[in-house]
Amino acid sequence: MSQQAPLSSVNDFVVRFANVNGSGSASANELFARAVLRHGVPVSPRNIFPSNIQGLPTWYEVRVTEAGHLGARGGGTDLMVAMNPQTWDKDVAGIVPGGYLFYDSTKPMPSTKFRDDVTVIGVPLTAITNSTYSDPRQRQLFKNIIYLGALSALLEMDPKLIEQLIGEQYKGKEKLLSSNVHALHLGRDWALQNLKCPIGLRIRKADKVGDRIFIEGNNAAALGAVYGGATVCAWYPITPSSSVAEAFTNHCKKLRHDPETGQAKYAIVQAEDELASIGMVVGASWNGARAFTTTSGPGVSLMTEFIGLSYFAEIPAVIMNVQRAGPSTGMPTRTQQCDLIACGYASHGDTKHVMLFPEDPAEAFEFAAASFDLAERLQTTVFLMLDLDIGMNQRLCRPLKWDDAKQYDRGKVMTAEMLEEGRDFGRYLDVDGDGIPFRTLPGTHPTKGSYFTRGTSRDRYARYSEEGAVYADNVQRLLRKFQTAQDMVPRPLQANAAKPSKYGVIYFGSTAPAMDEAIELLEARGHQLDRLRIRAFPFHSSVASFIAEHDFVYVVEQNRDAQLRQLIVTENGIDPVRLVPILHYDGTPITARFIADAIGTHQDQIKVTPLRKAVS
Amino acid sequence: MTYIAKPTFQHPGIKKNELGYSHRDYEGKISTLCAGCGHDSITASIIEACFELSIEPHRVAKISGIGCSSKTPDYFLGNSHGFNTVHGRMPSVLTGANLANRELIYLGVSGDGDSASIGFGQFAHAIRRGVNMTYIVENNGVYGLTKGQFSATADRGSKSKKGVTNTDNPIDLVGIALQLGATYVARSFSGDKKQLVPIIEGAIRHKGAAFIDVISPCIAFNNHAGSTKSFDYVREHNDAVNRLDVLTGRDPIEIDQDPGTVQIVEQHDGSRLALRKLDADYDPHDRLGAMTFLQKHAAQGQIVTGLLYVDPEADDLHSHLNTVERPLNRLEAADLCPGQSVLDKINASLR
Hints:
The structure holds two protein chains of two kinds. Helices cover 39% and strands 19% of the residues of chain A. Chain A is α/β, with parallel strands linked by helices. Chain A has four domains: 9-202, Pyruvate-ferredoxin Oxidoreductase, domain 3 (3-Layer(aba) Sandwich), CATH 3.40.920.10; 215-397, Rossmann fold, CATH 3.40.50; 412-489, no CATH class; 493-615, Rossmann fold (3-Layer(aba) Sandwich). In chain A, the strands form five sheets. Chain A has a seven-stranded mixed beta sheet with strand order 11-10-12-13-15-14-21, sandwiched between helices. Chain A has a six-stranded mixed beta sheet with strand order 3-4-2-5-6-7. In chain A, strand 19, helix 16 (512-524) and strand 20 (530-534) form a beta-alpha-beta unit. In chain B, the strands form three sheets. Chain B has an eight-stranded mixed beta sheet, sandwiched between helices. Chain B is globular and about 75 Å long. Chain B has one domain (23-349): Thiamin diphosphate (ThDP)-binding fold, Pyr/PP domains (Rossmann fold), CATH 3.40.50. Chain B is an alpha/beta fold. Chain B is built from twelve helices and 13 strands. Chains A and B meet through strand 9, helix 7, strand 11, helix 9 and helix 10 of A and strand 2, helix 3, helix 5, helix 10 and helix 11 of B.
C-alpha cells in the first residue's frame, strides 16, 4: 500500500472540503467551483451539511469532470481539504489510495494520524492568518481564501480567473476586493515557495462549459414561478425547500414592482404552518390568482386534507415539494426521492395527483412555470417534485429560456360575457368530454354563475347530493380528467442503445446525470440498455409500451420501497416481475458507479440463468 | 331541506334598497338547521345588513369552515360565491382569496369548534395579519353536528345536556382578538337582531380585521338549565355596553338621546358609526381598557356585548404587503412575466 503511486489526473477528480458549519467556508468553496468552471471545465458540487447552524461538520464536494458527468461520483475523495479536526479520522479514511491530503500544519500532528498511501500537503494556515490578521473574524474568513490560494497553485489554476471572480463578487467594494485578492496570493505564494507545485491533479483550460449556467434548482424553480405568473406564495419554512420561497421573494423584489407606484404585483405570506399555507393557496386559486406553496415531506403530510379538497372541489394548487429523506424528521438535510406515493395519492378517499419530475434546474424552471398552466387547466393540485440534490446544489445546466409570445393558459373559466350569452353553466358539468368542467370566479356576474364550493358530494350543477349515482358520476369524471392529464404533462424521453436491446431502464428526476454516466459504464462492460426518463405522473402511454417492448426493465430510484415501480405496477397493471428495482436510499445522491454495479451484476447473472426461466 | 325549492314570488310592494334589490335578493337556500336555531337568526341579520348597505350580492365572497355555523353561507346571498372549506381552516382560505382579489367583500363564517378548537391557530393568525374581512363566530359552546360535545368556548362549570360539568377553562375569542390586534371587535347575541345588524354593517364597512363573536344558543344540545349559552342565561346576563347605528351616505345624524352619550366614529370608507353609550365607563377606543373590562365582567358571570373596540384608522394585509390596487387575479403575462431579455441577464450572472 505504501508504494501506491500518487494519483495523476487532469480535469477529472473529486475534491472534498471538510469544514465546520458557520465558519464562512461556503463562499470560498463555491469560489473554487466557479473558478474551475471559468477554466472551461465542468464541475458538479454538492453540499453535505447537517441540520445545524453553527458548529457541526459540513462538507463540500466538487467533482471536476471535463467529460461532463454531473452526478455524484462516489468511491472516495481524491483530494481532501481537511479543515475540521472533529472529522479528521473519517476524512482521512475517505481518501482513495494514492490521493492527497491537504491540511493546516500549524500544529504538529502525530504520524499515526496520517496514511502512508496518500500524499500529505501541509500548509500552516493558522500561522499565516495569525501573523497577517488581528481580528478573529478576519482570521477565520481569510483562512478560507488562503487555502483556496494554496490550492490554485497545487492544481495549477490560473489565478487571474479567480481574481476576476472575486472582482465580480465584490464589485464596488474595493476594500473587500483587494483584501480577498491579497489573501488569495498569500496562500498561493506560500505554496509556490514551499511545496512541489503542481501535484498530480491538475486543472487545465478546456472549452466544455459552453453557455451553460450554474444555478440551484430551488432558485430556478422560484424563477419559474415568477415567469409562470404566480402572484400568491404562501409557505412555511422547512429544509430543504425554504430557499425556493426566499428566492421567489428576492426575484419579485427586483422584477415585480410597479415602476411608477413601487407597489408589489405579488403577495408572499409566511404562514403559521403548512395547513395555512396550502389553505391560502387554495383560497387564492379559487379566487383566480396563480398561487403556490413550497414544502418538504412533513409539510405534505400536514397538507393532505386540503389536497383532497383541491382534488374533489377542483381547485388549482401548485405545491413544490423539495424531497428529503423521511419518514418523520428522517434525515432533513439528506436527499431522497421518497414522496411519490405520499404525493401521488395524497389525502383520504380515492385521489390521484399530477406530479412533475424535473431532472435539473433548467427543467425545474420550465416545469415550475408549466405547473401553473397545468393546475389551472386541470383545476387540481400539481406537485413539482424536486429533491435536495437538485434543489440545494448548484448544477450546470442549459440557459433558462422563455418564449415571449407565450400567454398563460388560464383553463376553462366562464366569463360574464359567456354567461350573458346564455351558456349553460354547471360547475361540474363535463361539457367537452375531457372531464374538465368550467368554473366561474367569485364576483363575475350579478345573477349568473355563482355556485357553492364544497368538499361534500354534489351534482353537476354544484348542488349538494349524497345520491350514490351522482357521487359515482362525479368521481368517474375525475378519473377521466386524470386520463386527460396524461397527454398534457411532459412526456417521457427515450434514448435507445446503439444496438437493439432486450433490456430497458426507467428513471426520473435527479437520478438523470448518474444514469447517463452509468449507461457509459455499462456499455464498457458490454451491457446495452434502452432508457426512458419519466418526467410526469400520470404516466404517458409510452411508459407501458416501453415496458412491453423489453424483456424486463430496471427501475432506478432513490427510495427504499420502489415507489415509482409501485406506481407503474398499480397504474399500468404491469406484472411486477418485469420491473427490477434498483434502489439507493442512504441519503447520499445516487452515483453512476452504484447504478452500473447493481445493473451490471444483475445482467451478468442473467447471462447464466435468464430471469424468466428462473421465476417460472 | 335544500331539495325543497324556495318560492321566488315577491310582493310587488316589497321594500327595495338603493340598488333596487329586495330582501329576497339577499337570501339563499332554505336552511337545514333545527327550527329555532340561533344561527338562522344570524343568517337573517347578515341578509338585513347586506340589504341595508345596498351591497351587490355577487361582490361578496362567503367562506366558512365545517360545522352547523359553516353550513349557513348556503342560506344567504344566493348570488354570491360560497366556499365551505375544511374544518377550522376558513381563515387561511379567506386570507388567500383576499390576496387574490382585494375588491370583493370577504365574509368568514365559523363556529366555536371551528375557530376556538381545531382552527384556533388559523383564527389567531388571520386576525394578527389584519386581513380585511368580517369574521363571524356563531358561538353556541357545543359541537352541534356531532351531537352535543363541549367546545372550547363552553364556560367552566357549564352543564351539558347529558348532565356532565365542563371542567376546562373557556377560550374567550373576543379577548384573544383584542390581544392580537383586531381593529373592529364586537360581541352580540343572536336573539338581539337590533344590536347585531348594525354591528355586522359596521364590520363590513370596516377596512381591516373585523371580528364578531355572536352567542347563538344551540336549541338541540345547549339550551337547558345549567348551560351558560342558553337563551335564558344569555338574556339574563347580557351586559350591553353600547348601541350602534351605521350611517351611510348622506343620512342625517339623528340623535334622540342625550347628545353627550353619542359618539360618531368615521371609518376609512366614509361610513359613520353612531355609538350610543349604555355604560358610561366604557370606551371602545381603548384596547387595553376593553380587555380589562371584559375580564372583570366575565368574572362576575356577565356577557359583555356591543361594539367593544374599533380603530377607524385601521389598515389591512394588502397595505402591509404594499400590493397593487388592481386585483392580483386580473394581472396578465404582460404584467407578470419579465421576458427573455431579463432572463438573458440572469443567465449571464450565473456563469
